[in-house]
Every structure is written in C-alpha cells, then in structure tokens.
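Annex B. Sample input.
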Amino acid sequence: MHTFPNVTVDAKANVYFDGRVVSHTILFQDGTKKTLGLIYPGKFHFGTAAPERMEIIAGRCSIILDGTTDVTQVEAGSAFEVAGNSGFTITVEEGICEYICSFLAD
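Annex B, continued. Sample output.
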C-alpha cells in the first residue's frame, strides 16, 4: 500500500550523506512508524537498531546485508528485511530509488 490514511507526518526531513538520501517519518495511530525516502546514485551504509523492512517502490538498487558478501538486486515492487542491531550497504547505480522503510517488532 502506498497511501497511508490517518497518519502524522514529521515535516522535518532526515538528511543523510550530504543530501544523497532523504526521508520523512510518518507516525501511525497505533504508535508504529515508517519512513518514506529517496536515495540518489551512490553507495551508502546504514546501521539498524530495530529490524526493518525496506520496500522499493520506484527505481532499483543492490544491497549487501552486514555479515555477508552476497549482492542482491532489488527492483521496484520488491522488498528486503534487515535484522536489528545490524546493517546493510545499498547502492543505486542510476536514477532515484524510492522506498518505504517499516520498523518491525523485535
């Protein structure tokens, strides 16, 4: 689902890597949150505190989960999950990759 009714949006952007990754946080009535963002071309590493599900809604990227050397290609309409207290490296070769990040329960 790409439409989220009855949410609160934090208008202050989360800006990473000199503006190459930008997201906004949305808060749901049940207390859960997601971030919606854009990743411009480049290679970026993110750490995770809680488990996350990254849904790619436009564009494409490749990822390497921490602790592995496996490169996984992720296209629009696909998703990947990252364990808590871990991380991943994401690479966007061209265009803009748009994503929805869901923070999962431990």
